[in-house]
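Support reply, case 0932

Customer input (verbatim):
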Amino acid sequence: MPVGALSSEKLLSLVPAKLMTGAAWNALAQVMYRGLVILAMLIAARLLGLEPFGQLSLLYNTAMTFHVVASLGLIMTGTKLVAEFAKTDKVKTGRIMALCHYIALISGGLVALLMLLTAPWIADTVLNEPSLVTGVRLIALLLFFQVLADSTLGINLGFLAFRGIFVANALTGICALFFLVAGVYGWGIVGGLLGLSAAEAVRFGMLYRLAHRSADENGIPRTWRFPSEELSVLWHVSLPAMATLLLWLPVTWIGTLMLVREPGGFGEMGLFGAANQWFSLLMFVPGVITQTILPILSEQVSAGGRTEARHLALRSAAIMLVLVALIALPLMVGSPLIASAYGPDFADGALVFILMFAVAITAAPQGILSNYLAAENRFWLRFRLNVLWAICYLIAAYSLVSHGAVGLTSAMIIAYAVRTLATLLHVLVKKSEPGL
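Our regenerated output:
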């Protein structure tokens, strides 16, 4: 067995069993769901052809963009607060669950209604294709069910119901495969969007049932009253979580816009996009651990184990740093081959791939460290650290983008390194904002 594989196994053996088990189920859930959706999209592409599939993809990505706004950070809200209070304040936990359901219903409903009312304008002005107005109206339905499903996903993560999430995601993926392909085959783009919406409705139903079964098992009383006394969590948790996500979208878009405005910019963008796929792949495991560790850290902090939670976060972040480095370093050596595999036009872009692998190394620990701050209720600090990342990235990108994809990737290294170090500093400072 390769030395790297042995080293990776030894590193993962240092992660607590509870975290590893949860991460394994979480990873399987994401792989199953995403894999089946990708397969469904592949079949849909063959059925539709290039241009109609491009329209379907554009509509789907538009739904994802509006979804960030409509979700109001409810995954983070449910995960953190349910994990924190499930054992110490069962009545409050029931109110938090109700709040997540109501806010998802209100926020998802309002954004979906706005999309319905402005569908002609979105299709004509934003998407530059007036014929997509029906598609825009249909993605409003898709977005509505996505927001409802995500609010219940956060609750289930808070209950550490990782195995149940896997089952729900697996069945949803199967439904997405069947509904999307059948819809596209029968009714084209309209049928495909209806199929995706139906799959998300199934996902919401399964996750909702799982959340309330977990609540019953933990003795959490249900309430159908709107919990106005818990609205403060929207300011302390939901809004900074949403703002952190919202900041990422325009900042990364501005960076790519700078790149394509340079001479030969679209070629450089192609090179950057190819390398960025590997960044996403390398960040999969840290991303799974980051999502899995939040409810565990929140539970520990709530139980008075703040020192243990800090040690777990620091140890897990260090393991992720070394693990990603062990994978990225051999890939750096093989970058010329990887670049050439994309075609002769990419053959001279090995340095971009090398730098992108370095980006993954610098970014690997920051999600875990950031979620420790979330466990300590320092949500607005997390947002300010993301603002720091954005400022560093934009300044570095503006200064270096004349070097093409190499410059933009270098800007990513600078920005992620600054954010990771700044987050580490705040984790090491033993301070917590008032509890919720």
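We compared this against your earlier run and they match. Two observations from our side: The chain has a mean pLDDT of 88. The chain is about 85% helix and 0% strand. Please reopen the case if you see a mismatch on your end.
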